[in-house]
Write a structure and sequence with these properties.
The complex is a heterodimer of chains A (about 130) and B (about 130). Chain A is an all-alpha fold and about 130 residues long. With about 130 residues, chain B is mostly helical. The termini of chain B are far apart. The chains are: A mainly alpha (about 130), B mainly alpha (about 130). At the A-B interface, helix 2, helix 3, helix 4 and helix 5 of A face helix 1, helix 2, helix 3 and helix 4 of B.
Chain lengths: ~130, ~130
């Protein structure tokens, strides 16, 4: 005999109440990161040098700036999704887990935001 | 109720070490390393926006021995996470679940990551970037 309610059975979410959305977002962001990361790597490799003026000149091109913003945004999102699962799996005790999960969120927003703002400053020349 | 607490996944100590779980753990480990790499990437971008002096300071940090060691580690972590991530995506659409395919793709991810890392640094060295 099942003790699950008919609604619970239809929703099929289990005790965590969600999961597929997180899992799916991880996959979708990973698919986006394949071209984005490879584009970034090969772009840097194809530059004549990694000097200040060369990198700045490259990032000032609208397409480079745009794709770099997307890269940092999706990378931050994917890293957030992945490391969140690691913390949920291996950090025991509700207190430490909550503190770590919240700190990670704040750090990712800070880090991703700083990276994107830096690219925008270069792109808009300030 | 069970007579004793059941093992919940993932408890690392219940696995016999073999290629499958080793690569799975390596996927997570490289993912964590790459999350730290994201901090380095943002730091580099902020230094670039800050002007020539701050960029030079960051460049020196990355070009130092310790910096290069970290960059080498991140490059391997990136290639491994990329190849093994593709492996996961193929599994997600239902391909490559047979034992032989799993092992072959696993070794492909490891060998591919080592070869790509070596090729990248050989290229950087040949172009005089190091």
């Amino acid at each position: 005999m099942s003790l699950r309610s008919p609604l619970g059975r239809v929703l099929g979410t289990g005790s965590a109440k969600d999961g597929t959305a997180h899992w799916w977002a991880e996959r979708v962001s990973s698919v986006a990161l394949v071209p984005l990361t490879l584009w970034f790597l090969f772009s840097l490799l194809l530059l004549p040098s990694l000097d200040f003026a060369v990198i700045r000149g490259w990032l000032e091109v609208p397409m480079s700036g745009f794709l770099s913003v997307l890269l940092v945004a999706v990378l931050t999102y994917h890293a957030y999704l992945g490391t969140t699962v690691v913390v949920e799996d291996y950090v025991h005790g509700d207190g430490p887990k909550l503190v770590l999960l919240l700190s990670l969120r704040f750090l990712y927003v800070l880090c991703g935001g700083a990276g994107i703002f830096a690219i925008l400053r270069i792109a808009f020349g300030s | 109720m069970p007579a004793r607490p059941r093992p919940l996944s993932p408890h690392l100590e219940i696995y016999r070490w073999q290629i499958g779980n080793t690569l799975s753990i390596l996927h997570r480990a490289t993912g964590i390393a790459l999350a730290f790499g994201l901090v380095a990437l943002s730091f580099w971008l902020v230094s670039l926006a800050g002007g020539e002096d701050s960029y030079r300071t960051a460049y020196r940090a990355f070009a130092s021995r310790l910096g290069l060691l970290f960059l080498a580690g991140w490059s391997f972590a990136f290639f491994y996470h990329l190849f093994n991530g593709l492996r996961h995506l193929f599994w997600d659409v239902g391909w490559g679940f047979e034992r032989r395919q799993r092992h072959a793709s696993g070794w492909f991810a490891v060998v591919g990551a080592v070869a790509s890392t070596a090729a990248l640094w050989a290229l950087l060295w040949r172009c005089g970037r190091l």
